[in-house]
Amino acid sequence: MATNVVMEALSPTMEEGRLVEWKKQEGEPVAVGDVLAEVETDKAVMELVARAGGTLLKQVVAAGTTVPVSQLVAVIGAPGEAVSAPAAPAPKATAAPETQATQPTPDRSRPVSMPPAPAASQATEAPGTSRAPAPAPAGNGQPAPSGGRVKASPLAKRMAAERGIDLGAVSGSGPEGRVVARDLAQAGAPQSAAATVRAPTPMPGATGPAYTDTPLTQIRKTIAKRLAQSIGPIPTFYLTTEVDMERAWEAREALLESAKGTDGGPKVSFNDLIIKAVALALRQHPACNAWWQDDRIRYWNDVHISMAVAIEDGLITPVIRHADRKSLREISTEARDLAGRARERRLAPEEYTGGTFSISNLGMLDIDEFTAVINPPEAGILAVGRIVPKPVAHDGAVAVRRRMRLTMSCDHRVIDGATGARFLQTLTGMLENPLRMVY
Amino acid sequence: MPTLTYRDALNQALREEMARDPDVFLMGEEVGVYQGAYKVSRGLLDEFGPMRVVDTPITELGFAGVGVGAAMVGLRPVIEFMTWNFALLAIDQLVNSAAKMRYMSGGQVGVPAVFRGPGGAALQLGAQHSQAFESYYAHIPGLKVVMPATPADAKGLLKSAIRDDNPVVFIEGEMLYNLKGEVPDGEHLVPLGQAEIKRAGDHATIVCHSKTVAVALKAAEQLAGEGIEAEVVDLRTIRPLDTETILASVTKTNRCVVAEEGWSFAGVGAQVVDTIQREAFDALDAPILRVTGADVPMPYNKVLERAAKVDPAKVAAAVKQVLYLE
Amino acid sequence: MATSTRPRPRGGLDQARADQYRDWLRQMVLIRRFEEKAGEAYSLGKIGGFCHLYIGQEAVAVGSLAALAPGDYITCSYREHGHALARGISARTVMAELFGKAAGCSKGKGGSMHLFDASLGFLGGHGIVGGHIPLATGMAFAAKYRNTEQVAVCYFGEAAVNNGAFHEALNMAALWKLPCIYICENNRYGMGTALERASAIYDISERACSYDMANEVVDGQDVLVMHAAMERAVQRARSDKHPTLLEVRTYRFMGHSMSDPIHGHYRTKEEVEDQRKRDPIAVWSHRLVAEGLLEESAVKALDKEILQEVNDAYQFADEAPDPEPGELWADVYAEGDGHGR
Fold this sequence. Notes:
The complex is a heterotrimer of chains A (439), B (326) and C (341).
Chain A: E1 3-6, E2 16-22, E3 29-30, E4 35-40, E5 45-49, E6 54-59, E7 66-68, E8 72-77, H1 154-163, H2 181-185, H3 218-231, E9 236-244, H4 246-261, H5 270-284, E10 290-292, E11 297-299, E12 305-307, E13 309-311, E14 314-316, E15 319-320, H6 328-343, E16 357-361, E17 380-394, E18 397-411, H7 417-432
Parallel strand pairs in A: 12-16, 16-17
Antiparallel strand pairs in A: 1-8, 2-4, 2-7, 3-6, 4-5, 6-8, 9-18, 10-11, 12-15, 13-14, 17-18
Helix pairs in contact in A: 5-6, 5-7
Chain B: E1 3-5, H1 6-20, E2 24-28, H2 44-48, E3 53-55, H3 60-72, E4 76-80, H4 91-98, H5 101-104, E5 114-118, H6 134-138, E6 144-146, H7 151-163, E7 168-172, E8 180-182, E9 196-199, E10 204-208, H8 211-224, E11 230-234, E12 237-239, H9 243-253, E13 256-259, H10 268-279, E14 289-291, H11 302-308, H12 312-322
Parallel strand pairs in B: 2-3, 2-4, 4-5, 5-7, 6-7, 10-11, 10-13, 13-14
Antiparallel strand pairs in B: 1-8, 6-12, 9-11
Helix pairs in contact in B: 1-7, 3-4, 8-12, 9-10
Chain C: H1 18-43, H2 58-65, E1 73-76, H3 81-87, H4 91-98, E2 116-117, E3 122-125, H5 133-146, E4 152-157, H6 164-176, E5 180-186, E6 189-190, E7 193-194, H7 195-198, E8 214-219, H8 223-240, E9 244-249, H9 269-276, H10 280-290, H11 296-319
């Protein structure tokens, strides 16, 4: 059995050593304790000593080479033994495989409450006074001074805040005008007119500012960052197709009709149908149900559909897990619930992460078609336009039929043209002939 | 209640603890035949014999190490340094052996020893005999540092220190040995790690220890004449610090002066100030001021020496400053 | 007492003590193979910081510790792996401590220089040169204080004898007549400085006359001679409560620590090779074989068995867990919680 000889840490601080000179040649016999080579460390020239006996089968690095600690430098074994030593040095710490799933980061469009608005409760001053509006709110509820910073002891600040006294209006008796506790004792009762906190009111008309800067909320920042990432490095291409939705329309109408008589249940929407169809189609085209992971592609066996939901100030994608296995009822109920809670910002992180494919539907906003931005690490997103009656060629004649345009954005690193196209074919087939979903 | 000098209170504590526990012994220069350099161990040799009251050669490092070694195997030595100035020679044993033994051994070997002696200045003893080193030892995890200011505390704290299983640095004061005060008879134990409010007041807190306690009390008396009521907090133990008492007082008065005999840089007061600013920031109406020994080696000349030391006038002035009264 | 070098006993070994003699060989081989393995582990980064190997000095620890009783106290310098093993701390526990694991004898918090086992009277493992010598005096003081038969033994190198602590500690031990044995392992080099360059007097044992203390110069490469000298010192300590200074002449085959080359700057390759000819283990095993107390094959078998024990210790240490994070704060103070503010 061959023994690998590695560069050893010959001093506590050594990280690499320069192999100055080989003292044993290939083919020479070696005993335990023999000097194999001279190595220059950060401190001195030291001897690399053999820890096993045998024949020096291979000098892996040449004299004069600098080698990091732990790297292979030689192999000792029985004479004539085959050496299967790797030619290249072992790479440094590689990314840990299976251990942590790189889930999409939870801050992806996470609903975060906005920072507290300035207290607007006591705006007694009319807009247009000579005082400048207060700067953007910081968390401590400090009223603005008339100019420059107010020096006040921590105690005085606290007392002023508690009593609603404007520190700027108090004259300080401490060094350099510092406001101290006793100054507040003389500052008078709270709620005096001069002591209220004013909100910054945007000025209408010519006397107002030309623009208003609004700081980015967390959600805006996250959307910006993640989707800019998406457009940038992801080689995206787009596939568009038009689906004939007549049969789907009829089928849905029939379903709603039949549900009327019974206790009801959820009203299945077209979006629910599309979610189900997409999920089933993905099962047949697993190449589209994948994540780009920098050094590999993760093909998911499960199908979790992220559905884009517009909320005030932004966008979030709650996930319907195992959409392929759920009934239309279940999908409908879940979608409704998730969308509702999304708008109220009451989603838990596990409810908006972990999707394998996204769907964005702007049909209800009268968009015919659009291209959606891929949500990394997912590889595909389907943009759904509105269902609109239009004249088309059908069975040789012009007929008015309900049509819907789909545009799929694909990450070319994971999905190629034909792959994406075939997926769309299957999807279209299901929507145009709904029984294909259970075929 | 009997009135004793600080010296005799220590003597009483030693006597009681040695009678109570046969493992307690006293070792140091001149502790036996000479009756103690400051007479703290008067009469003990006669009562307990030479195996328990051991005179040593002038070998601070050596006999400190002997004490540590004896404590490692279960005895409870009280090692006396004639003054803490000389104990610098022994600091290797206190820091590298005593403080660390329990930790390095994974909890197996403790050092239940007390190292005691007078620290700080007396009168005109010059630069090498006037140093307050408590912050050196308070810096070290594994040591406890105790500094009684009154006879009652001297007795109670020494008894507690001897019974404590950790190495304790016990710093007395040459100028305190003659101080008289009431000392409870019998089992009077003062817990380590507990400060005491020596004088209550609402307007400002004075945190102090050892000799500066008397100074602070005098300053408080002067201030009371002007209508200012200062609260005097005697730390008693430097490490572990009783932050609760300090913070409660400053939260009440909103202002603080820290007085200490030692030098300013990295002194005990710096730790007190850090604690207050960090944990009672919003209670403060003024920055915390420190009154310390002058940042110089102690001069010999009487007048210069007085100028270098902390006195009631300096403390009172600082209190007025934090009240914005000057 | 005058300095003397006791002559090596001539003639045959006492057959009645054959088991003990073989056990000495076993202990020395264990130390040797353990230290070699530790050196390897250090080179692979499993042991960090400092690592001072005892290779070449095995006979000193084994011969001297064999003369002690279970209740005796031992303190050592930082080159104490061999002493720890000879005193009875298991190879697994010592290796685990070197690796910094919770299963180590100091719970992973001491390391190579701070091996402790209070139950065996093994009281460290100390890093300050000479700093532990007064501790031993203190332990001997405690023995006398309690009127027991215990002795305290202190191991240190020849470079420590110029240190103030050495002087103070020995003076007090002689002055107060304490049952302490001071073993100076003179391996001729204090790190990179030869004894001749550090010490005004070459014969360390002569310092004992400053304290009117009994002393001997001992050939530390002969385990039997070492043991005999130690027995005399132990007897003197237990019965007469007199301390002894033993100057034990030995040699370390490796550098001062793992960062120190074996030879080069301060000693020559020839000198090291010359010393290796008197390898205490080889000397003792040859003698046992020559006097019929051990078969040649048994020597090989012993080595193989020891290698297995050492490899097992290595593996144990490698696989053992680190201390829990909370251990950082434990045992600073006696109350258990280290947050002394």
